[in-house]
Amino acid sequence: MAYTVANLTVTFAAALAGAGFIGVNTPKLSLGVALSLATWLPAVTGISADAGVAGVGASLGVPFSAIVIPSLAAAIAGQGLAGTATPQLVAGLSAGVLTSLGQIQAVGQHPAVGSGSGVVTFATTPSAVPYCLAAFTNASLVGVEAVKLATGLGLGLTAIVQSMVIPIAIFGSGSTVPSAGSGVVRLV
């Protein structure tokens, strides 16, 4: 299932409501976060270290990050957003991010390895902050606190994706000659 703005918006609305973060701007926040992910993820590219047999292959993996809650909590608190509703906000956003990761697949192309395995990292991921700032503005979330929240969310999302290490299986045309190389992986 590919991610779309519509299903990400519903995902974050449900996650925020489930965490008890309910208010008049919760739908706008859900849309802002969904737009942030939907516009930023196409810019994210991972590089894989591959081993197997020579050929041309493709891969499929499932992204996961164990540092979602600490990354978002630290990034949001680092922007000075530490109030009585912050725990519910962080819990809702974290649940939404983890659920969204379940809707995303890591799909790669591997020109040197036709059949084998690899490990994907996203160390050179661009910052999500400009995408979040633009998305929040598009969702009519404006003002000083909205900028702080968008910046905190962007920093947290960047840290989450840069920390991901995804094991992948490479499948395709293979020979009997051993080979190693690298591939390019996108989150779709």
Q: Provide a count of the helices.
A: 6
Instruction: Give the termini separation.
Output: 9 Å
Secondary-structure element order, N to C: HHEHHEEHHE
* Low-pLDDT regions: none
| Structural class determined from secondary elements | alpha+beta
Q: What general outline do the C-alpha atoms trace?
A: elongated
How much of the sequence is in beta strands?
25-35%
Mean pLDDT score: 94
Q: What Rg, in angstroms, do the CA atoms define?
A: 18 Å
For the secondary structure, the number of strands is 4
Q: How much helicity do the residues have? A: 40-55%
Number of domains: 1
Largest sheet: 4 strands, antiparallel
Secondary-structure blueprint:
Layout: H1 5-18, H2 26-40, E1 45-61, H3 68-78, H4 86-101, E2 106-110, E3 113-121, H5 129-138, H6 144-163, E4 165-187
Antiparallel strand pairs: 1-2, 1-3, 1-4, 2-4, 3-4
Short key terms for the protein model shown above:
alpha+beta; 4 strands; 188 residues; elongated; single chain; 6 helices; 4-stranded antiparallel β-sheet; 46% helix
